[in-house]
Amino acid sequence: MSAKPRVLVVEDDLDVRLSLAEVLADNDYEPILVSNGREALNHLRTQREKPRLILLDVMMPVMDGSTFRAEQLSDPELRSIPVVVLSAHADVEAAAKAMSVTHFMRKPVDLDDLIATLRKFC
Amino acid sequence: MKTEHDETISGRSTADLQAKVEALRQSEERLRLMIDAVRDYAIFGLDPEGRITSWNTGAHRLKGYSRAEVLGHSFSMFYTDADRARRHPQEELRRAKAEGRYEEEGWRIRKDGSRFWANVVITAVFDHDGRHIGFTKVTRDFTERKHTEEKLRQSEERFRLLVDSVKDYAIFMLDPDGIITSWNKGAERIKGYRADEIIGKHFSIFYEDGARASRHPEDELRRAAAEGSYGEEGWRIRKDGTRFWANVLITAMRNPNGTLLGFAKVTRDLTERRDAYELLRRSEERLRLLIESVDDLAIYMLDTEGRIATWNSGAERIKGYRAEEVLGKHFSLFYRPEDAASGAPERELEVARRDGRHEEEGWRVRKNGELFCANVVLTAVYDDERTLRGFAKVTRDLTERRRMEEEARAAERAADEERARTFQAELAVKMRDDFISIAAHELRTPLAALKLKLQGAQRVLQKNDEKLHTTLAERLEGASRHVDRTGRLIERLLDVTRIVAGKFDVKREEMDLAATVHQVVTDYREHALQSGCEVRVEGAETVTGPWERQRIEQVVINLLTNAVKYGAGKPILVRVEEDGDIARLRVCDQGIGIAPSDVDRIFGRFERAVPANYGGLGLGLYITRHIIEAHGGTIQVESELGRGSEFVVALPRVREFVKVGAS
């Protein structure tokens, strides 16, 4: 299991989170699931082994995607982990740009696109 | 003189002669005594050489010398040094001898050296034989008269200088016929003529042709002669032909006998004053017209007793009286009888007179008996001498103002309500758009999970060859397509929001329209066949341009689904053309067509040309139009009911924003 590349899924919707987990597992990635930015930060700061990629939702309770991203960028240890924004937001591109993220996917995400993106980073 | 007698009596009887001599001597003595007694005249005799031979009392008194002091001396002693130097005394004697008599006036010297102004008459004396035997000289002291004359002369000179130096008045003399005889500087300045140019000319030269033709100048003189003087104001002409407004006074001059000597004419240039007067008059005229034309206020004057002196159109409108009906009447006319009886009008005048001003609001009566609430300002009007000239009265009809205020308030309320309604409408639109955004977001989220699950399942199934799995895989694929369709529906709703908000923009990339058309047609062929429509693509193999791939796809999908939907199961032709800088897409069906009256509105929001049982949001063509326009292109439709429709899209193939024609 530890050989599989880790992908951190930050997503508040349980259905989406579990679906992503299934897809990731089917394609030989190790999904780590958290439901908001705060949990994501806690995880990243407590686990020695960092994920290869973070799939980040934008609108979440407790800590939203942009706050998480700001915290991540201000943390030298976490800064370099690539992020892909996944959002149902109408203008996901603008949201991603505002968070200094270059890769984004609009929900509902096409599985092929998702797998292509995963392969690019992991 | 004795010698003469001595000679004439020779040869006559001595007694007779002696008697005659005695008589003569006595006569001579009387004459001498008489002459002697004359005190006011110096009368003395001179021999032919001018030596003094006799001297009377007057001479003594006048010249200061006694007889003894002067007898035998030359009379030149009485002359000034200057006269003596030019031998004037001798010249006098010569002329008296030659002409019998010489008279002059001049300065002479008294014994005490003082001068006096003398009137001198020298008469040559001849004997019976015509021999010149000497002169009698009669001198009179005219010093006083001289002084008087000098004073008069100086006075006249001063007067002349005065007249001459007056610059503001043309002062000149006319003879009885009107010929100019003198001219001062003021005349030169005002009229422009120099004295040498004008003296001797008739004064009618200063008048306008009309006045000359009507013999007005002569008439002026006639009236001045008859009445002593004549004055008027009128236009006169300067030398340079310009006019000036003159104040003219002509005074007849007569000698003590009443004989007309001529006229003095004094002319003043009042052009500036007239201009100022004219300005003032015009200004007053404007003010009067202004006040008269004020329609909303009754503005009028009362005399000091409260009688109406002027009336404007506002007064006529508010009070209902015409000017001729009220001028001269007392302003208590406008008061209620009980107010007038209680002396209210007089009290108001009294307050205005005392304080300068009185203001009140109260009831007044119109001509038709109607009461109205008026604001009245009464102001005392004084002239420059602080004499009360009357009162200015300004009356406002407050009933009208109140009505207008009420109308203004009502209009304001209506505007407020309208603003509130607009605000509510805008709020509703915003809430709807927000709701759509949220709804879309909410819908997408489960769709995201569903799609991932379906696609994941598909992938898992694809790893097996079993038939059951194949069937399941096909069904899952169908489910995935339904998800995509739901997603597109959501996107359409969002597109409407973007278009309305003006946030619809294009993310261009170089793409091939023909390839996109082929792809969409391939994807939709089966769906079309299910509706009985065969779809054929023809035209260019490749037509590239800088467009947004997804949006252009959306356009093709929209047009194709519309063609299938309204195509009545008949063949559909899709054609791609390249026309220089323009790419053209034609989608042609043979379906139900569109009524001409509906053609214009099918590109509007939520509009459909067909009954509701056809389904759909009615947004397809609306969004399609906006996508094409955002690319700088156009979309047009040609259609005939029952024969089908052809939609023609034209897209510019260059990046610059170019509006293009569709055909």
Characterise the protein shown here.
The complex is a heterodimer of chains A (122) and B (663). Chain A has 122 residues and is an alpha/beta fold. Chain A contains five helices and five strands, in the order βαβαβαβαβα. Chain A has helices at 14-26, 37-46, 65-74, 92-98, 111-121, and strands spanning 6-10, 30-34, 53-56, 83-87, 103-106. In chain A, helix 1 (14-26) links the parallel strand 1 and strand 2. The longest helix of chain A is centred in the N-terminal third of the chain and has 13 residues, at 14-26. Chain B is elongated. With 663 residues, chain B is of the alpha+beta class. In chain B, helix 17 packs antiparallel against helix 18 (467-501), helix 19 runs parallel beside helix 20 and helix 20 (549-565) packs antiparallel against helix 22 (620-630). Mean pLDDT of chain B is 85; it is low at 1-5 and 657-663. Classes of the chains: A alpha/beta (122), B alpha+beta (663). The A-B interface holds A 13, 15-16, 18-20, 22-23, 26, 59, 86, 88-90, 106-112, 114 and B 437, 440-442, 444-453, 455-456, 459-460, 483, 487, 494, 497-498.
Terminal Cα span of chain B: 157 Å
Helix content, binned percent of chain A:
40-55%
- What global shape of chain B is seen? elongated
Major sheet attributes of chain B: 5 strands, mixed
Oligomer type = heterodimer
Order of strands in the sheet with most strands of chain A: 2-1-3-4-5
Structural class of chain A: alpha/beta
Secondary structure: helix percent of chain B:
40-55%
- Greatest interface (CB-CB under 8 A), with counts per chain: A-B, 22 and 23 residues
Q: Structural class from helices and strands of chain B?
A: alpha+beta
Major sheet characteristics of chain A: 5 strands, parallel
Task: Please write the string of helix (H) and strand (E) elements of chain A.
Answer: EHEHEHEHEH
- Alpha-carbon distance between the two ends of chain A: 15 Å
